[in-house]
Specification:
Largest sheet: none
Strand content: under 5%
Structural class: mainly alpha
Order of helices and strands: HHHHHHHHHHHHHHHH
Number of domains: 1
Oligomer: single chain
């Protein structure tokens, strides 16, 4: 193999199973630290009472909007970079990175300008009232004001992942999360800033991580591809390639935000602010269970992208199926752990007098919601494979199927129409995810089989 290639690129172009494992490991570690921060953040905020927990929960969908736009452009760039590297087109891979960076700056500024003036209206629209409304508005203003840094850190990580540099992407995540864990109690309690202190701790951590990314990409310059903050010339074809995956990926993330907004409204209707606090707290733990899949998904996108760029459908299928098999095994283990320790996990968020009354409800939520985890790999990794091969619209369809159509529909039916209340909402989330994941996996298998047949029909040169 070309000695000029970095280790990450060599792995990207090598054995798909080895690549999935090697890429997944660092990303899982980084994301676990990130998930640990989410839990620690929840613990510190829980000390402020259930109103504070509810405020953070209400902000989550809006934060997903910001992340969806950042991640969408990042995934579009990462996928394009991987495919160009697979096709041995280094200059076009470098151009894709620079175009991705420039698009990210535009998105970051647009988020702040577009959302900041309407923050209170947004949360009043979904039912935030009184103290909870004031808390979520003050929290949101800090993070929306710093959106450009949130977008930049996500896009920079996507560029590194695109060329197989998962270790530095991991280091960046660990730095940001580690700083956040340290700064949270200082800003929340020592400086007596309360909920808004948690937002400032998050923004400060992201800013410092962004400085590290600037050093790696623009000063140290030891990446395989050459990254510039602004491309030397505009390339419409590269931009289109990025956006073909990036826009559907952003809409896929946005659809999840829409689904959470709707779910929040359903939960408020049947469970009030306590229901939101339960849902938010349970989701923090469930996200730890999903973290290994996020790491595997990163590897699947990169490996399938490079394989598709090289025209190697066997490697594409191998990487996809291997990722799914590992994911299912991991999630079965996570399901068992959550069912066994549900009561102990609920105590993490209900240790204070202000939150103790939701302990039993949180335990129930854990024991119901955990059942969707073993089927998540079927849908999530299919979506990642679609992103890898440049079929962003397929990935969008998979996500909408899971979140907006099945998940929301079943939650409404069981929680409100059939009158099962908050427990019905939990089971609706489970049934919706399971059905959509099975349908998505079937679609993924069919798509790969069709690509293989298409390659066989191509006459030799």
């Amino acid at each position: 193999m070309d000695s000029g290639l970095t280790k990450g690129v060599q792995t990207l172009l090598g054995d798909p199973k080895r690549a999935i494992l090697k890429f997944s490991g660092p990303m899982i570690v980084g994301m676990l630290v990130q998930a640990l921060y989410n839990i620690v953040d929840g613990i510190w905020v829980a000390g402020l009472g259930s109103d504070a927990l509810a405020a953070i929960g209400l902000f989550f969908p809006l934060f997903m909007v910001i992340i969806s736009l950042a991640v969408g452009v990042g995934i579009g760039g990462s996928s394009t970079i991987s495919r160009r590297i697979g096709a041995r087109e280094k200059e076009r891979a470098s151009s894709a990175a620079s175009h991705t960076m420039f698009l990210g700056f535009i998105v970051g500024i647009a988020i702040t300008v577009g959302f900041y003036p309407f923050i209170r209206n947004i949360f009043e629209l979904i039912g935030a009232k009184g103290n909870v409304s004031d808390l979520v508005v003050s929290y949101s203003k800090v993070l929306i004001g710093g959106s450009v840094f949130i977008v930049f850190s996500n896009i920079s990580s996507g560029i590194l992942r695109g060329e197989g540099d998962m270790k530095r992407a991991m280091y960046a995540m660990m730095l940001g999360s580690g700083l956040n864990i340290i700064l949270d109690p200082i800003f929340i309690y020592t400086l007596k800033l309360g909920v808004v202190g948690a937002a400032w701790a998050t923004l400060a951590s992201i800013f410092i991580t962004s400085l590290l990314m600037v050093y790696w990409l623009f000063f140290k310059k030891d990446t395989y591809i050459d990254v510039r903050p602004v491309p030397s010339h505009f390339d419409a074809a590269i931009t289109k390639e990025i956006l073909r995956v990036g826009i559907p990926s952003s809409f896929a993330q946005l659809s999840m935000s829409v689904a959470v907004f709707i779910l929040n409204a359903i939960i408020v209707g049947v469970g009030g602010s306590d229901g939101i606090a339960v849902y938010t707290s349970a989701w923090r733990i469930l996200m730890i269970g999903i973290v290994p899949l996020l790491g595997i998904a990163t590897g699947v996108t990169a490996v399938t992208g490079a394989a598709y760029g090289a025209g190697d459908m066997v490697k594409l299928k191998t990487g996809y199926m291997y990722g799914v098999k590992i994911g299912v095994v991991v999630e079965l283990a996570v399901l068992s752990i959550i069912l066994l320790l549900a009561h102990q996990l609920s105590y993490i968020f209900t240790y204070s007098k202000g939150a103790a009354h939701i302990s039993d409800s949180l335990t129930t939520a854990f024991r119901v919601l955990a059942w969707f985890l073993p089927t998540v790999p079927l849908g999530m990794l299919t979506s990642s494979m679609f992103q890898g091969i440049g079929k962003g619209e397929y990935s969008l369809a998979v996500t909408i199927l899971r979140t907006v159509i099945f998940q929301v529909a079943f939650s409404y039916l069981l929680g409100i129409t059939f009158g099962y209340g908050i427990r019905g909402v939990w089971w609706g989330i489970v049934f919706g995810n399971v059905i959509a994941s099975v349908v998505s996996f079937s679609w993924g298998r069919f798509t790969i089989a069709r690509l293989q047949r298409k390659m066989l029909d191509v006459p030799p040169v």
